[in-house]
Task: inverse folding
């Protein structure tokens, strides 16, 4: 049975091993254990060896990573509740570092002048870090490092309004989020590193209170040392407009002079997007009744759409929350054994994530393009094409020989209807 486990995250200074914070499970590791985890890593470094991961006798896993020779992050998975793969732990470490850079900037983390002050400053990152530890809502971007998208039934008028609004706001970086997922974005926004798109979408989810805000951000890859302004406007509850810009315009000017002019005519279109909810697919996409959930990744654009069937489930079928958990676990299973996760470089180039790939796949003389898994709860099928990866969740009653046909038809139904 596929199960997810708990993760505890530790942050220390790389040079002296001073603990900066701990997040995750409520029961914190004893200081002696934290010191041992730091000490064994330092000992390996002194012997010319880099300790990156290990497995405990009781089934837990530990992953270390040092960022900019300044901060060491350690992810520890618990022995109870199931195993956590190295891919998940490495992604968590990368997400945490990117959260810290996004909020504080790289200079504050690389040049540590006062450890106690840094500890206080890092508290402003906790809410965002915790969001990633909890799975970043109902999206998959924290794991796939692809932007979670919602495919609107009428994207053209929204795209035109966004382009015009962004230009009027003296920017080239803008996006529209519905339920935390990207509906439309400007060309320059899509040129941001996929991890940055995921980060900014998650950051907006942490905003509360006023309908608009002006928040300084650092882009971990694009601008790690120079802050930009993130202007966020809540068009409707659940629909957020975001713009990255410089000193101008002011938040008040953009809110009073630009928002109503460009977006009031599209209120009904926005409400149509909101009604999609967690489905993330327009009504023109007809999914087979046996599809309990899916994750579709566009490998060329590093965008993804995921959905699980909601409503009343027949007896014996997993609930929606469990379906989403199974999809995440199957993605890790397939990515580390068959397909291999892809990394996106600073220039947008794709490269294989071989360090995260298990030895299991090294014996193959070819690149697998399909895989399936049968569990006590469900059946899962993975399909890879040059442009897409599809992960499909189906009930146990579906015949195994029908999985491939169902996956192929599902991929064709989505891509032909939406162009995704």
Result:
């Amino acid at each position: 049975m596929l199960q997810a486990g708990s993760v505890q995250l530790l942050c220390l200074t790389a040079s002296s091993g001073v603990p900066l914070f701990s997040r995750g499970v409520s029961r914190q590791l004893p200081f002696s254990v934290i010191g041992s985890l730091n000490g064994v890593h330092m000992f390996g470094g002194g012997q010319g060896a880099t300790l990156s991961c290990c497995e405990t006798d009781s089934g837990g896993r530990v992953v270390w990573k040092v960022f900019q020779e300044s901060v060491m992050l350690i992810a520890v998975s618990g022995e109870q509740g199931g195993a956590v793969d190295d891919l998940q732990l490495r992604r968590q470490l990368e997400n945490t570092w990117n959260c810290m850079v996004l909020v504080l900037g790289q200079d504050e983390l690389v040049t540590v002048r006062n450890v106690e002050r840094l500890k206080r400053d890092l508290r402003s990152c906790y809410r965002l870090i915790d969001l990633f530890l909890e799975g970043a809502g109902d999206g998959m971007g924290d794991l796939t490092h692809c932007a979670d998208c919602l495919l609107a039934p009428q994207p053209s008028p929204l795209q035109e309004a966004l382009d015009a609004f962004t230009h009027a706001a003296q920017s080239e970086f803008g996006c529209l989020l519905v339920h935390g997922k990207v509906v439309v974005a400007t060309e320059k926004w899509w040129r941001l590193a996929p991890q940055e798109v995921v980060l900014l979408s998650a950051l907006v989810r942490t905003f509360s209170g006023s309908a608009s805000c002006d928040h300084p951000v650092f882009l971990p890859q694009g601008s790690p040392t120079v802050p930009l302004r993130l202007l966020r406007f809540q068009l409707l509850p659940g629909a957020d407009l975001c713009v990255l810009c410089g000193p101008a315009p002011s938040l008040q000017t953009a809110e009073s002079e630009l928002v109503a002019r460009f977006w009031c005519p599209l209120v009904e279109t926005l409400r149509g997007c909101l009604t999609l909810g967690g489905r993330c697919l327009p009504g023109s996409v007809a999914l087979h009744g046996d599809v309990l959930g899916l994750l579709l990744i566009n490998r060329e654009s590093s965008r993804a759409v995921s959905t699980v069937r909601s409503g009343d489930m027949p007896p014996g079928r997993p609930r929606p929350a469990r379906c989403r958990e199974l999809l995440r676990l199957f993605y890790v299973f397939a990515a580390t054994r068959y397909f291999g996760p892809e990394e996106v470089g600073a220039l947008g180039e794709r490269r294989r994530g071989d360090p995260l790939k298990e030895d299991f796949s090294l014996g193959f003389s070819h690149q697998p393009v399909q895989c399936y898994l049968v569990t006590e709860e469900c059946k899962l099928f993975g399909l890879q094409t040059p442009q897409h990866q599809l992960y499909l969740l189906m009930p146990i009653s579906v015949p195994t020989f029908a999985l491939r046909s169902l996956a192929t038809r599902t991929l064709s139904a989505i891509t032909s209807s939406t162009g995704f």
Remarks:
- Residues 105 and 225 are 5 Å apart (CA to CA).
- Residues 344-357 have pLDDT under 50 and may be disordered.
